[in-house]
Structure formats: C-alpha cells, structure tokens
Amino acid sequence: MGSGLGEELLERLRARADARAAWVRPGGDDLPDRPTTARLRDVAAAVESRRAGAAQELAALLLAVDRDGDVVVLAEAERILLTAGPRLWTALDEAARRAWWHAPRWSADAVRRLMRDESSPLGLTVAASHPDGHVREAAVTALAELDDALALPALALRAIDWVPVVRDRSRAALERRLAEPSGEALVTTAAVALALRDRRAGRWLADRVEAVFREGSDEQLAAALAARDRATRRAAHLAALAAGRLDLPRMLHAAERDDDLPTRLRCAEAAVRTAVAAGTPDLVRPLLTNGTAMVRAEALYALARVGDVAAAEAALADRHPTVRAVAQAALRRAGTDPAARYRALVGAPHPAPGAIAGLGETGVAADADLVRARLDHPRPRGRAEAVRALRRLGATDPDTLLAMLTDPSGSVTRQVSTALRPWASGLAPGPLRKLVAEGNPWHVRMAAYRLLRERDPWTRLLVDLELVADPSPPMRGRARGDIAAWLAREAATTYSMPRGETADELAARLPDAADALGRERVRLLRFHLGLGNRPVA
Question: 440 — phi, psi (to 5°)?
Fold first, then answer.
C-alpha cells in the first residue's frame, strides 16, 4: 500500500517522520504505560457521559495501545470504537490531534509504519486524526482500501476535513462503500454522518446516507430503522415515510415502541392518516394507551372523526390537557356538553385528577363547590388539579388555600402559591414568614417565599435579607440573586421609600448582610432605600 500513496506523498511523509524524530524531548512521549482493557472501557464510558478531560485521556490511551501492539488490548480498543456512539467519535477526533503533539517519537514511528503499510486498523484510525494533513491523507488512502468496519467512522470524520485533498479522498471512498453497503456499514456510517450534518461541509455525507434510506434495499432500511443511535433511527423513519416505504404495522410499532419522541409523533401522525385513508381507523386504537400524550391525541382524533364518541368519553379524564381537549371537542361535535360528564366524574368517589382538571377547563363558577370538595384528594396530583381548577373557575378562596401551603407535596404548594399570587399584597406577612423560616420543608419555604416576594418591594427585600445567610444553599442563593436582580433592574424605578417600622427593620438587617452581599452592595441598598442618614448598627 505504500506505493499507493504516490512518490510525492511518500517523500513528504518521510520528511515529516524525520522532523518529528528530531523533536523528541529528553523525557520521551507523554503517553500512558501499558493501558489495560478495563481502563479503556472506563475512559470510553466517561467520554460518552461527557466527563471533562476524558476524550483527551482516551486519545492518549489509544495511541499507547497502538504503540504497545498487545493483541488483546488492540482487539478491545477496536471493539470499543466499533460500538461507540457519534459523541465519542467526534470528541476523539479533536482530542487525538492534541494527543499526537505529546507523542513526537511515536508520531514519527507511526508515520514510518504508515509508509511501510504496517499500520493496524486502530493505527490508521488514530492517524486519520493526526494534526498533519499529509499524514491524514495517507491514513485516508489506506483506510479506503481497508476491509474493516472501523474504517467507516474515520472516513466519515475526514469527509468534512478542512484540507480539500483529504476531504475528497474520504468522500470518494465513502461513495464507493455506500453504493451497495451492508446494513451494518450503513448504520455505522450514518451515526457519525448525521452528527456532523451541521458542521462546515457536513451536509454531503448526511444527504448521501438519507438517500440510501429512501432508495436502498429493504435490508438496509431495516437495519437503519433498528439502529441503536437515536438520530439514525429518526432520519431513517422520516426518510422512509417521505418515500412511502413504511407500512402501517411498522408505523404503529415505531409510534408505540421507539424511545425517540419525534419519531413516535411522526409515525403516529402517518399511521393515523394511513388508517383513515384505508377506512380502518380501528387499527390505531392501541395508540390510545400510548405513554406519549401527542400519540394518544392523534389516535383519539382519528377515532373521533369517524364518530367514535365512546373513545372520546373514555379520554375525558386523561392526564394530559391536549388529549382532554381533543376528547372535549369530540363530545361537543356529537352534541354533548363535556362539563356535564365531568360533573358526574368528579362527583364519584376518588375521581381521577384528569377529571378534576377537565371540570376546571369546561365548567362554570357554580361548579366551584364540587371542585372545592376535592381539595383533600388522596393523591397529590388530585389536590393540585383541584387548586388549579378553582383558579380557572375564578373561585380562589385565600382563607382555604393558605392552609394548603403546608401540604406534603411540592406540586400542590406550587399550585397554591400560583393561585394566591393575585391576593399576595393583602396576605398577612407574619404566618408566611414563619413558613419560610429554616426547619420547614423546602417546598413549603419556597411557596411562602414566592408569596412574600410578590407582596411589596419592602417585604421582598426584608425576606431576602433574612435568607442571604440561610444554611440552605439553594435558598440563600435565590435570596442573593433576587437582591442582585432588584438592584440591577428595579431599584432605579421604584419611586417610593420604606417608612416607619419597615424602614427600621431594613436598616437593622443591612449590617448583618454585609458578609454575604459585600459592603458595596449593602451601600447600594442603603442608597436606594433612602437609609443613608440612618445610623449603622
């Protein structure tokens, strides 16, 4: 293969090898000693989980594995790369260019091996990410003739290389391989190609892969539809849908089973259109129990269009508002008032939270008593939906809801604080300040804090000053951030000053906050609060 590089390229490689050999530092290469298979696996997993510095460590390990030539470790390194996702490949490509600079001795030896056609598949893969364009060109030339799946991701990376000759050689090699690729080869190439789509010059390979999805064999499409990489599956499904290559069973399977949300939604939409057009809408009925709300909504809409009122009634208490809205619209088209159905559902023992929510969406003010009776629902979601429904019906009762600020569920207290916001200025601050004090559950403190913050600027600042040194990091961080936001965006346009006891309390708290806020911020607070002439405690 050395002769396949061409005399000019060989001469340049020979010069590069000699130059790099001259750069060798007294301490030698900065590469790990004797990498192990376990270490490779651990670092590769760290790269996939985006741990800082892991890609650089993996690049150095792979150079050391190629240097040592241990057959077992080489095989494990190649297995790891073959099963790696595009995140690892793209991170490794950048990290390897830096790693080569720390290994001038092995860089020179690797170039000589490349010239003599003695590089391993792993050696060619890491050489394809060398900082020297001539080395990358030689590696790509060798990879183009290598009958090994490891060549495909490396060639895909070089198909967007900034050096035209490297890029063109990679594309020519990929064009040949994608003419009649195996399913495995297509999936391996597609994962990296789609990850690089938005890079400069990245569209060429992504478009070529998607063309195979549309026009390739059934075997190739089946492999792409079952790919482990989510982006590959999504692109394959979308291309196959556009080309009319997915039948209804495969659409339904993807809508029910695929873990990619856009894939589920597009396949559900297509399945509904296909089933309705074929006069078989009952085939989408299994989607009514799908875990994705929009898939359930699509199926329900299809059944409602053909007059299946029973399906709409069964979905009235769905947990998602979009599905409930479709069900409500279907009942109205059938001449039925959904609010009447909701009243019956909410009046039954232990109604579903979705039924309570639905009555709030469709009911009238007179339904408030029925909803209010569900404020003690055994499920947190039921209580939260009851509070939300009262707010929608315009029947919020501050006296009743204040007692729910101590509910054991954060979802309930969030709804309570939202419902009470319009009344915040009239709420007594004393009980709320007790709830925001240290010792109460986090969600209770936060609900009370939100209401105190809405009451008036001076109560807001008083509570913030109380909390700037709170033992809870999230609470003191929120208080400090709120003070900073007030000073930056609101202080200059707050055209009033605290008076009387409020001003005295603010003045008393400012000195204690100096350590947490800094003296400059305390000085600004004193200025904007008009406390400059008051003595500092």
Answer: -85, 155
The model's confidence at residue 6, banded by pLDDT at 50, 70 and 90, is low
Q: Of 458, 439, 436, 459, which is closest to residue 447 (Cα–Cα)?
A: 436
Residue 431 tokens read as: 């009980």
Report in angstroms the alpha-carbon separations of 162 from 132, 199, 201.
12, 11, 9
Q: pLDDT confidence of 18, banded at 50, 70, 90?
A: low
Q: Report pLDDT digits (tens) over 487-531.
A: 999 999 988 889 999 999 999 999 999 999 999 999 999 999 988
Helices 338-347 & 321-333 angle (0-180, nearest 10): 120
DSSP string for residues in 377-435: -SSHHHHHHHHHHHHHTT---HHHHHGGGG-S-HHHHHHHHHHHGGGGGGS-HHHHHHH
Distance CA 537, CA 27 (A): 63
CA dist., res. 478 & res. 425, Å (int): 21
The DSSP string of 104-142 is HHHHHHHHHHHHTT---HHHHHHHTT-SSHHHHHHHHHH
Residue with tokens 């990489």: 229
Residue 438's φ and ψ, nearest 5 degrees, are -60, 145
The residue with tokens 């695929």 is 258
Is the pTM higher than 0.85? The answer reads: no
Query: Sign of dihedral through CA atoms 433, 436, 440, 441?
Result: positive
* Amino acid symbol at 513: A
